Amino acid sequence: MKMTAAVMYEQGRPKPYVDSLPFQIEDVELEGPGEGEVLVEVVAAGLCHSDLSQVAGLRKRKLPVVGGHEGAGIVREVGAGVTELKPGDHVVMTVVSGCGCCRACNRQRPALCQSVTVPRTQGLLATGVSRLSRNGQPIYHYSGVSAFAQYAITVPKSLIRIDDDVPLDVAAMFGCAVVTGAGAVLNTAQVPAGASVAVIGLGGVGLNAVMAARIAGASQIFGIDINAGKFPLARDLGATETVLASDPDIVQKIRDLSKGGVDFTFDMTGNPQAVAMGNAITARGGDVICVGLGASDTLFQYVHAALVTEERGLRGSFMGSTVPERDIPHYISLYKAGKMPVDRLKSSEISFAELNLSLDQLDRGEVVRQILMPHAA
Question: Which of 142, 220, 225, 355 has its CA 20 to 30 A from that of 377?
Fold first, then answer.
């Protein structure tokens, strides 16, 4: 079929993106689903800081590529051998989709599955093919999803069926922002009740971490950002304290308020200075959880003696250590119960015509989560 999609031909175009147009809105061809594949009509797709990283060229991608890795839609067709889903099912589209039988998958860590990761680094689906093209030339898939399009081909393990009463513009955020932020708190760190927590970076992922920390029963939740405009929403969602990252006394303030440092710090930025600050505000015996991704070759420094003598943990959390089949239905049940109001993170709905401008707004920190509606006029 022919459809409209947002295609990136070159990484590293200059800002403002509204002028340099990293995404070209074009008609492309999409093949039908092959064996073990599913055709989804994309109803909504979230715009994420990871998309900014790809546009900036911080992590290289096979080009040209149809962007988007966080979405929701409706199954329209299934390929041979697909029994988990049927046409008409409402689904969340997520990056995390293990093979189900490797060492990582057997340990309930599908985000670390190399059987899926290797073809994706080549711009292919987990089945090893690309179903996208334009004028006979191949176009590649982004993280096995490519949600910045009217339709997408992906594999069943990238799709989690949800109830029809969940608005798809909200459901889209569960594919990345929710699982990454909430999962870092509930899966990776397993924050216990009564612990103190700091979250650096209050975008979509960070605010989901704030909500998850409240659900976990954290006694103190520090929300940290360079933009004070995000603080009212952070407090509404569970932050007990909000602090400007630019405050020259931030380390001492947080250590004083937390009586010696927080038990868990979550960095959503991937910035070396932010991680260093996170290390400084974490208590002896505490843990620094690195969630945000910066450039693939960025080096971080720490004082090794302090890491050892203070028994401080430093670890990564990729996609919230998520098991999608287990976690997404659970998070949606929390949303439906009013305990995780993910809908409050939605800043606006955008069309393809507004996509490049929306990248600038996200880069300036003016929004939390913008939702692309691929079928909008």
Answer: 142
